Amino acid sequence: MDKIIIEGGNKLIGEVNISGFKNAALPIIIGTVLSGDKCRIENLPMISDVSNLTKIMGMLGADVKLDRNGILDIDTNNIEKCVLIDEITRKMRASYYLLGAGLSRFKEVEVLYPGGCDIGVRPIDQHIKGFEALGAKVEIDHGVIKCSAEKLVGSKIYLDVVSVGATINIMMAATMAEGTTIIENAAKEPHIVDVANFINTMGGDIRGAGTDVIKINGVEKLHGCNYSVIPDQIEAGTYMIMAAGTKGNLLIKNVIPVHLEPVTAKLREVGVEVIEYGDSIQIDGDFDLKNVNIKTLPYPGFPTDLQQPMTALLSTVKGTSIVTETVSESRFKYIDELKRMGADISVDGSTAIVKGVDKLMGAEVRATDLRAGAALVVAGLMAEGTTAIGEIQHIERGYEDLVFKLKKIGANVKKV
Ligand SMILES: CC(=O)N[C@H]1[C@@H](OP(=O)(O)OP(=O)(O)OC[C@H]2O[C@@H](n3ccc(=O)[nH]c3=O)[C@H](O)[C@@H]2O)O[C@H](CO)[C@@H](O)[C@@H]1O
Ligand SMILES: C=C(OP(=O)(O)O)C(=O)O
I need a labelling partner for 152 at 20 to 30 A (CA). Which of 53, 106, 320, 405 fits? Predict the structure, then answer.
């Protein structure tokens, strides 16, 4: 089994380039189904979720060519139906977007219940509520989700919880429905806007993405397009935290600073210097850091996907920090791994009480999920001695060339 080995203690210094955003790239790749035409998608991250999804698109019948620079040429004209009962769809969460896209184009879709990070129950009741409101029939049978409709008709849908996945899936399903669909209490994450912009570039008519009310006017047909995915604010935030944790000085390039504001604000509160430029951010972490409290919230709140790396950083900050997780049901499993490295953290329900220790010590640990892996990398970079992180397939779902990028900025790290 592959491992990442880190000799801690080196400051991260230099420049790092941020890749395209996994959580925008995946629905956009699936969204090409809507066009039934040729699309070129650029700035895709070279991560296992993208390579697996390209395989899935090929299995459905699309012509796909993904080059090493993150450019995908895809023609979905040859897809005849959106039915795929194969374990490969369980390697990621985002395969559930086949439901919205398949329903919209073929009025019929069958896929397995999705996989993704083990961070709680992760229900899809809001996706189903949306599909049903548009006129679809939805059945779940032995882990297979089947949706079908005679026709889809626009409707008003109020989401009971703010859900990124349900917002995007309903947007996709409504794109070619008859009439207008309104999603209320929609998620506002930057990738919602990116997916809406992509669908509009294909001829869709979606308004209000980025606010909590999204209006989708159904169109008859979409066409192919060229589109470039936004940068990954979670990857960028992870490097910001790593630079802070190693007291480094890092220029993080190819980012949209406004997407990072919740992270920038929190790091400034911790005592890190953050300078925002047009499309890059400079981090100087060579200061005494202060304890802070964190509460995860839907965008523009502090992102749940950075709760784990941020908690790793706080584990060596003097004083007590309180971390409250309100988005994911169960996202503290990695804390037992941090404790193996000497962290003093106790968990009470959705709250972690982090008492800063003087230093972490390298240890043998395992990534329990994607961002748990990122948290352990942060911890390993800060720790004294050697950290060996196992189960790195989780990390490879979401971080392009992590070891290569880290080496270039001074980390003593290798994959074995
Ligand atoms: C591929 C992708 O984009 N993954 C992201 C997406 O996951 P995902 O789309 O699964 O997350 P959601 O935004 O849907 O989930 C937010 C909360 O709503 C709940 N919920 C969700 C749907 C539903 O039908 N019913 C329900 O109760 C979930 O259990 C969770 O507590 O957003 C999460 C929250 O920002 C991120 O952590 C993930 O990185
Ligand atoms: C939870 C995450 O991913 P996914 O939803 O793809 O499992 C994540 O990116 O942190």
Answer: 53
